[in-house]
Design a protein that fits this description.
Elements lengths: L4 E4 L5 H4 L4 E3 L3 E5 L7 E2 L9 E5 L5 E7 L5 E7 L7 H16 L9 E5 L8 E10 L12 H8 L3 E8 L2 H4 L2 H14 L7 E6 L3 H4 L5 E7 L6 E5 L2 E5 L14 H8 L6 E5 L5 H8 L4 E6 L2 H13 L6 E5 L2 H10 L4 E6 L11 H18 E11 L6 H14 L3 E8 L18 E8 L1
Parallel strand pairs: 1-5, 10-11, 15-16, 15-18, 16-17, 18-19
Antiparallel strand pairs: 1-3, 2-7, 3-4, 5-6, 6-7, 8-9, 9-10, 9-13, 11-12, 13-14, 19-21, 20-21
Helix pairs in contact: 2-5, 7-8, 10-11, 11-12
Amino acid sequence: MSIPRIILKKGEERRLLAGHPWVYDNEVGRLIGPGAEGRALTIENLESGAVVDVETDHKTYIGRALANPHSKIVARIFSPSKEGLDRGFFKRRIRSALERRREFYDLQRESARIVFAEADFLPGLVVDRFVGWPYGDLPSTPDPVTFTLLESQLGPPRSWITVQFLSFGMDSRRTEILGALAEVLLSAELGAPEGLIERDEARVRELEGLPQFSGVIAGTYPPGGVVIFENGIPFAIDLTEGQKTGHFLDQRENRKLAARFARGKRVLDLCCHTGGFALHAAVGGAREVRAVDVSASALEAVRRNWALNRLPPTLTTVEGDVFEVLRNYEQRKEKFDLIVLDPPAFAKSHTALEGATRGYKEINLRAIKLLGEQGTLVTCSCSQAMDEGRFKALVASAASDAEKRLALLDFRYQAPDHPILLGYGESLYLKCGFYRLLS
């Protein structure tokens, strides 16, 4: 099959040859239509979602891509070779991604992101698989809620899938993708999901010329949400509401480590969402946990998860803006032994980086001032535009301005089911530093 070719401007190929999958519109030198005698085209002539080949100006082949003339990212490379884009292709890609997750997780029992877009060579496609039981089916018991208990009383766990089509090329092939996904899950003996939920509210869809949408598109979803387990801790989550796909799977290893610093400590979890760090700290033996978020529904979820874990009444939830709450605590001279900062992305793009840096520095500065003797700060950034060096530098600057000395205990990234693809810096978005206040 003859398809259009994108010929890059001279010198624009280095980033792409290093593995970056995006071709920007200002990198295109010329377009050649299909056929041996292909005529010159403009970007506007391209069909949204069409397959194109990308070459350098000296005819070096770079890869096959999905085009979108309405986006600044005019082509997203999905393969270094001239392969077709049929159901067989999607099955191979999804199967490979699934097998990589098996190296880290027991997918019969654990939830995981099984496709992470460009990092799994499926640009713009995100698939999360959640394993558990309907919340409404939980038995009434004073005993701790464990995976073993629910399995013995409710039978094997079920699964639900959330999917995001974040590029025009993937959205226009959703039938082939969902069919391939179903076949791969069955062949991997993971079974068919109870329900399939689409969570396509991301702004990137607008940039791709796509409408926003959220809802159940196949099967059923229990009205009370579902219960999953993370590091052995039960969480009641709602996959149809809240941020992203309902639960942030990318922080699981970081939450587990944070729990090691919580025993007997006073803990402040800022931007707590549904309580991932707060719950891990409590199960880790914290004597007091204060969970802060601007969302009332998120705090309600924290309280529900606290009750689900049969934890003692050592939780306080605070609804408020993180900047205002930190200023208030500083005025009251409050002190905490463990502070977790996990704010939403302040910088969605490099153009917002300067303002984001100021915001990150302010909340880190104020948090450092609230640390008690030998206190631990767990500070995160999920802004892909905020690279590791810049993030570490702003934490160091915040500590200097607070006239405090910090020691770096550990520095981590997102969980391995959110793989980091070399050459594609945007795939490394989550930074998580563990710091100790020195006396």
